[in-house]
Design brief:
302 residues, 7-stranded antiparallel beta sheet, 5-stranded antiparallel beta sheet, 4 helices
């Protein structure tokens, strides 16, 4: 039995006799006849058992610092050599336990089996739980999986119950509404953990959607006093929205530019008219400020 730092170890044979370091008293123990233990002061500890008893062996290890360790169990006889090894991570003071079996009749040793009852830990960074995204977004899938003992064997991702292998989610490919990303991870002894993230996709709200929404809210709240003013604003905005949508798909650079200039000019005129409406007390001061703010937001995206 050999270990590579940063660990010390204790072996127990099928008769519960011990060989290695007593972790409690920090002493060397050797209760097995014809056995040798190197001690725990060297970087590479090892123990040799001559004429081992058949059956189940336990190997207990304790971390001396944080880091990667290696456990190697070998059987040697008349030119026959069988090696079994395990590599993992350990923290200072952490205890880990392994078992393996020695079959004297078949001259064999089993795989090293970590005694691990703790599932991997999954941390999801993106997307965030209960978040809302629009259809034009591409959201990175970012997460980490760790297992302090046997190590992570595999991790699978499922988007709405279908296996997902991408590194980001294109929201335009999904339907509007609530969706679920599920991450399932197994360690090397098949302990399982899972983490689910729920998010919602909503329609991308354009700058015109915003001003139409505010216009209706102000009308319902009585802040647009004259109905003809409301109708004029609504019809003008509908006209400009049509021009804006044409501009967004226009391929000719000159036509695109001229459409943008036309929309911007009409919006500047609208701001002047809103001040006039306020002066006439056809709309409230708050309505004027809200609508002028929305108009300015449209102008910034032209």
């Amino acid at each position: 039995v050999r270990v590579m730092s940063p660990v010390d170890f204790m072996v127990k044979n099928p008769s519960a006799k011990r060989l290695g370091k007593d972790f409690v008293n920090s002493l060397e123990l050797n209760e097995i006849e014809e056995a040798y233990y190197s001690g725990f002061n060297d970087e590479n500890e090892f123990a040799t058992i001559v004429n081992p008893v058949a059956g189940l062996y336990n190997v207990d290890m304790q971390g001396t610092v944080d880091g990667e360790y290696q456990l190697l169990v070998s059987y040697l006889e008349d030119g026959l050599e069988i090696d079994k090894e395990f590599t993992g991570l350990i923290k200072n003071g952490q205890l880990v336990n392994f078992t393996f079996s020695f079959d004297e009749n078949n001259k064999s040793i089993s795989e090293l089996n970590p005694i691990d009852t703790v599932a991997p830990v999954i941390i999801v960074n993106s997307p965030t739980n209960n978040s809302t995204y629009s259809t034009n977004q591409n959201v990175a899938v970012s997460y980490s999986v760790s297992d302090d003992f046997s190590g992570v064997k595999k991790t699978d991702l499922y988007l709405d119950d279908s296996l997902f292998t991408g590194s980001s989610i294109d929201m335009s490919t999904l339907s509007l509404g609530v969706h679920k990303l599920r991450i399932v991870s197994f360690d090397r002894v098949d302990n399982q953990s899972a983490q689910s993230i729920q998010f919602e996709i909503t329609k991308l709200e354009s700058v015109f959607d915003i001003i139409f929404r505010d216009l209706e809210k102000l009308k319902a709240g009585g802040e647009i006093v004259k109905n003809p003013i409301y109708e004029l604003l609504k019809n003008t905005l509908k006209h400009l929205e049509i021009k804006y949508n044409i501009m967004m798909i226009e391929k000719n650079p000159l036509k695109k530019y001229l459409l943008g200039r036309y929309i911007d000019l009409q919006l500047q005129i609208m701001k002047i008219e809103l001040d006039f409406d306020l002066h006439k007390k056809w709309i409230t001061k708050n309505a004027t400020e809200v609508l002028k703010g929305d108009v300015q937001k449209i102008r910034t995206v032209l």
